[in-house]
Design goal:
alpha/beta, Rossmann fold, DNA polymerase, domain 1, 6-stranded parallel sheet, 6 strands, 48% helix, globular
Length: 228
């Protein structure tokens, strides 16, 4: 059964989550932050994800904006840079994330091929709307699906079923793309054809399900989708 629909994770897959810290590091007066921003950005992202998993398994859901703030607070404190002005600036920049360079042309190619495109994300609807607008890719997406309609984060099985429900597809008709190996693994377990966009050249996670395809970025997604 051919692929009709290509679905993307948002943060780290389409949108560059390190951009907020990188931009702030280049601003005047932030010399100390500039020395530490790569580790802060890494800790921020790691805690953001860890808090989604912990809230999912403990049945203590909150929206993604809350775990984004909580992750940043941890990262700044760990770096000895907790202050209200820097925190506010980084959070403001998170609403203005850019897309990775290959994303606009890649999405355009998919749409010109007649495929459905969409996002499936832990992000709250308002956060996703801001990211889509900032990146300028709204016209290239048919749907932006958020876990907030369910009240549980990935990788809960019900999240992946949102795609089937919205598009009326079977899992085999969906190509799911994520920069998170764990996300691609559980999407594969759901039955999607999956791509792990392994931007950091990390080892494979030891989890149920494995992505069928691994790529360094998203540039060749249209070519792959045409072959499936």
């Amino acid at each position: 059964m051919p692929v009709t629909t290509v679905i993307f994770d948002a943060y780290g897959t389409l949108f560059d989550v390190a951009a907020a810290a990188r931009i702030a590091a280049g601003e005047p007066g932030r010399e100390e932050f500039a020395q530490k921003w790569p580790q802060i950005a890494a800790d921020w992202r790691a805690k953001q994800l860890q808090y989604t998993w912990l809230r999912a398994v403990s049945n203590t859901h909150c929206d993604f904006w809350q775990v984004t703030q909580d992750g940043l607070d941890y990262a700044l404190e760990a770096a000895g840079l907790a202050n209200d002005e820097l925190r506010a600036r980084l959070l403001a920049l998170y609403w203005q994330l850019s897309a990775f360079p290959e994303v606009p042309a890649m999405l355009t190619d998919l749409k010109q091929s007649g495929l459905n495109t969409g996002i499936l994300s832990n992000g709250s609807p308002d956060m996703l709307a801001g990211a889509v607008k900032s990146a300028g890719v709204g016209d290239m997406l048919d749907a932006v699906l958020s876990v907030e309609s369910l009240g549980v984060f990935k990788p809960h099985a019900s999240v992946y079923a949102l795609v089937d429900q919205h598009f009326g597809t079977t899992p085999a008709q969906v190509l799911f793309v994520s920069s998170n190996g764990w996300d691609a693994s559980f999407a594969a377990r759901h039955g999607f054809q999956t791509v792990w966009a392994n931007r950091s050249n990390e080892p494979m996670d030891r989890l149920p399900g494995q992505p069928q395809h691994i790529m360094p970025d998203l540039a060749n997604i249209p070519k792959l989708a045409a072959q499936l």
